[in-house]
Design goal:
Number of helices: 5
Number of domains: 3
Strand content: 25-35%
Distance between the termini: 68 Å
Number of strands: 17
Protein name: RRM domain-containing protein
Keywords: Acetylation, Membrane, mRNA processing, mRNA splicing, Nucleus, Repeat, RNA-binding, Transmembrane, Transmembrane helix
Main location: nucleus
Strand order of the largest sheet: 10-7-9-8-11
InterPro entries: Nucleotide-bd_a/b_plait_sf (IPR012677), PTBPH1/PTBPH2_RRM1 (IPR034792), PTBPH1/PTBPH2_RRM2 (IPR034793), RBD_domain_sf (IPR035979), RRM_dom (IPR000504)
Helix content: 10-25%
CATH topology of the largest domain: Alpha-Beta Plaits
CATH architecture of the largest domain: 2-Layer Sandwich
Pfam family, one: RRM_5
Order of helices and strands: EHEEHEEEEHEEHEEEEEHEEE
CATH superfamily of the largest domain: RRM (RNA recognition motif) domain
Structural class: alpha+beta
Shape: elongated
Length: 314
């Protein structure tokens, strides 16, 4: 029996196959509980880090006699139950099974909820997020937003296994400093699983991206967003690229229509969509191609009106 002034067991409770463990080390993990209890029987469920100090847990055995065996053993042993050198106090729980063992954020899925701490919404571009997480597998979709918890992103992978690999490697880590703007000192990733399985991305924009659908329209309002630099695998800035071009039309000497733009830009590939609009007192147009091609980068040429093009990364 432990010499501690605090009794290690309570004998007044009705035996249960669920045991209540107290005085555990900080952030005790499931594997440590199983290691302590498995000599007495099969563990079918656990619930860790409960209580105000997160130093309590529940362990459920497959059979009542297995739980009784553990309690009886340590009740008669001169050596108390210990985890990481700390004496663990054991008692029967008043519950007969552990329910809702895991919160939704702990149930593995193919979509991760990422909270990026220490940054504002415009500090980390969707390209940087994609670069960091695509190291673990193909990223299908990304959606970023701001909540009370801060700047967050939903990241969809092919399956839960890929998402778990990314979470295990990145949770609690920092985005490499060279991928961040100069004014950002550091940021940390807090990652949990989302209940979503398939994100609904309606537009390609600076806040959301569907990497599986090259034909998804670009949201014109994305032009108002802050243009973030695209970061290459070597950490260097590179030219922003997209399958949608933004053309600023100046010094027009004749009417520029959708048909005119379609004829001009079709010389470089199949034009899917053309939209003309007025902005800041000038005429602009969005021209959408099926995808990127080398010929698109040759789209810098003189007309009787001057067309200045740049890749619109929205």
């Amino acid at each position: 029996m432990s010499s501690s002034s605090q009794p290690q067991f309570r004998y007044t409770q009705t035996p249960s196959k669920v045991l209540h463990l107290r005085n555990l080390p900080w952030e005790c993990i499931e594997e440590e509980l199983v290691e302590l209890c498995k000599p007495f029987g099969k563990i079918v469920n656990t619930k860790c880090n409960v209580g105000a100090n997160r130093n309590q847990a529940f362990v459920e055995f497959a059979d009542l006699n297995q739980a009784i065996s553990m309690v009886s053993y340590y009740a008669s042993s001169s050596e108390p139950a210990q985890v990481r050198g700390k004496t663990v106090y054991i008692q029967y729980s008043n519950r007969h099974e552990i329910v809702n063992n895991k919160s939704p954020g702990d149930v593995p899925g193919n979509v991760l909820l990422v909270t990026i701490e220490g940054v504002e919404a415009g500090d980390v571009s969707i390209d940087v997020i994609h670069l960091v997480f695509s190291a673990f597998g193909f990223v299908h979709k990304i959606a970023t937003f701001e909540k009370a918890a801060g700047f967050q992103a939903l990241i969809q992978f092919t399956d839960a296994e890929t998402a778990s690999s990314a979470r295990n490697a990145l949770d609690g880590r920092s985005i490499p400093r060279y991928l961040l703007p100069e004014h950002v000192g550091s940021c940390h990733l807090r990652i949990s699983y989302s209940a979503h399985t398939d994100l609904n991305i309606k537009f390609q924009s600076h806040r959301s991206r569907d990497y599986t659908n090259p034909y998804l329209p670009v949201n014109p309002t994305a032009i108002e967003g802050v243009m973030q630099p695209t970061i290459g695998p070597d950490g260097k800035k590179k030219e922003l690229e997209s399958n949608v071009l933004l053309a600023s039309i100046e010094n027009m000497q004749y009417a520029v229509t959708v048909d005119v733009l379609n004829t001009v830009f079709s010389a470089f590939g199949t034009v899917q969509k053309v939209a003309i609009f007025e902005k800041n007192g000038g005429t602009q147009a969005l021209i959408q191609y099926p995808g990127l091609s080398p010929s698109m980068k040759m789209l810098w040429f003189p007309f009787c009106f001057f067309v200045f093009l740049f890749f619109c990364f929205c």
